[in-house]
Amino acid sequence: MKFNIWVQKHQNQMTAAIAILIVISLISDYLLKLPMISTPAMIIASIIGAIPVFLHAWTALMNKVISIELLVTIAVIGAFVIGEYEESAVVTFLFLFGSYLEQRTLQKTRSSVKNLTKMAPTTAEVVDEDGNIETVDVDDVDEGDHVIVKPGGQIPVDGKIIEGKGYMNEASITGESTPVEKTIGDKVFAGSLTDNGTITIETTSVGEDTTFGKIIELVEEAQDSASPAARFIDKFATYYTPAVLIIGILVWIFTQDFPLAITVLVLGCPGALVIGAPVSNVAGIGNGAKNGILMKGGNAVNTFSKVDTLVLDKTGTLTTGQMSVTKLSHFGTDKESDMALLSAVEGTSDHPLGRAIVKYIEAENVTATKDLPELDTVKGQGLQSNDGDILVGNERLMKANNVEISKDARQAMNDRVNQGDSIVLLAVNKELKLVVGVNDQLRPDAFEGLTALKKAGIKRVVMLTGDNKLAAQHVADRLPVDEVHAELLPEQKVDFVKKFTDEGHHVAFVGDGINDSPSLATADIGIGMGTGTDVAIETADVVLVKSSFDALAHAYVLAKKTVANTKENIIIAVGTVALLLLGLLVGVIHMASGMFVHEFSILVVIFNAMRLLRIKTFNKSPKLDVNQVETA
């Protein structure tokens, strides 16, 4: 057992030693003409090379598996017996060198996970009730603890900001290198970096329970899980290896040509076939992880590549879930003064519509009115001053206070309603001054992303939403959406997904991972489009931590190319073995040359798989400004 462990630990050094011995032998034989050095060097190289191969074969036999190493062991022993020391040494070297290249490739394709693991925070600065700061191991931080992070520091926990603000680099979580501004109340994730600003975080999750921890775990599990092609190859190899052994025995029985039988065993080793599928799977999933896309294993990749129908939720998926002003219309003489008053009134409320209006007016460089009378809330209608001179709210508030709505103002209101907007009105002294349309903001990359998905193979795009028909149709009209079904409950969305699958379509459902969990689980592929929400990570087959349609398009293209790459590798591997055996029959291939071609085919499938690492994110044209704000 100890010897086996030692050999595994030093296998690369043994491979290097074999290479040196082979070079010494060849120089001694062909240049120095010293057979007394060249032959012993090849014998020693053969013995050294046979040891790790034999140990692997023996371990497999103990587990009742007839492995490729058994074929190589028999071939090496046979070559050694007939005095072909050069062939036996070269065979073992090429086999071990192929194994070394395989390990190096897998290490490289798993680099995204390793980089994430290295970036995992290990300590945290916890603030106690007295304001004292203590540096502790991250595993000792509890839920509810307050953690302080200084400029340039790494956020050690998941939580929400309770003090301070700054720009966070969330590349390790979302794959997006552009810093994101975060302030009080915003969520932050372990593994992120603070570009500037000192913040205090209230802890919600630590260690493996953080979004960062779950991402690492998911990618590791995904890269280790086998695709359908890989499972087929594993099953195929179980029968293929004994079949080659039997063929080799039959060749020896019928031809009495022992070297030929040994050559059949060597050339029949399906090394490229065995490595081809796993290396494609790992490379494809690794590329996704690097770009904020978590595909949960080879099965998810394979199924996603077949999708022809894309079903999407609206709010939080096609839209950002953040309200913004779509149009502001003014009916009065002093627009800036009226906007300043509206900003001051809405600044007293936490309503999403109010926050969107305040943000819009601030962007117009208008300062909110400072002297504001006391306001009362009218339930379901809006806000009004005690004397009734200032009214901010919906049309019901205006009617209740006998505010006259002119023909032009009515037209502006109808235009916004027809666009699916919510309406906020400002009246001063019974005179309507402002009509503001507010709506959920369409994702700026939705048009280009959906267009790219259709070009890549998606046949139908369907929107399912619980929102009203006007709002849903308005969003669909600005996007390449084929069908719209509105005013749906979550269970009705599931019914539509089932209907599409029953019709024989391969369906992917894209949702925010919260109220869409049933549909995510029902579809052939569930795609969670949210910033690493717990439900999305648990429920979806593909998680777009970087919540964008660019990432969705990249994920779909990557899935198709990964499956295609796997098939290419299978064809290369099987084709190589077939050509080698054919060359052996016609006498143009021998053991050494055949083994060289065989190992070269392993290099070909490895480099073919590594092309997946170079696939870049969706390269789009400039974004269509679908949310352009107009001002009348």
From TrEMBL:
Annotated transmembrane regions: 12-31, 37-58, 65-83, 89-106, 236-254, 260-286, 570-589, 595-613
Range of residues in the leader sequence: none
Membrane topology: Multi-pass membrane protein
CDD domains: P-type_ATPase_HM
Domain of life: Bacteria
Residues in P-type ATPase A domain copies: 118-220
Keywords: ATP-binding, Cadmium, Cell membrane, Membrane, Metal-binding, Nucleotide-binding, Translocase, Transmembrane, Transmembrane helix
Reaction(s) the record says it catalyses: Cd(2+)(in) + ATP + H2O = Cd(2+)(out) + ADP + phosphate + H(+)
Glycoprotein keyword on record: no
Cellular localization per UniProt: Cell membrane; Membrane
Database matches in SUPFAM superfamilies: Calcium ATPase, transduction domain A, Calcium ATPase, transmembrane domain M, HAD-like, Metal cation-transporting ATPase, ATP-binding domain N
EC number(s) recorded for this UniProt protein: 7.2.2.21
Catalytic class of the enzyme: translocase
Family of this protein: Belongs to the cation transport ATPase (P-type) (TC 3.A.3) family. Type IB subfamily.
PANTHER family per UniProt: CADMIUM/ZINC-TRANSPORTING ATPASE HMA2-RELATED (PTHR48085), CADMIUM_ZINC-TRANSPORTING ATPASE HMA4-RELATED (PTHR48085:SF5)
Protein name: Cd(2+)-exporting ATPase
Biological source species: Companilactobacillus baiquanensis
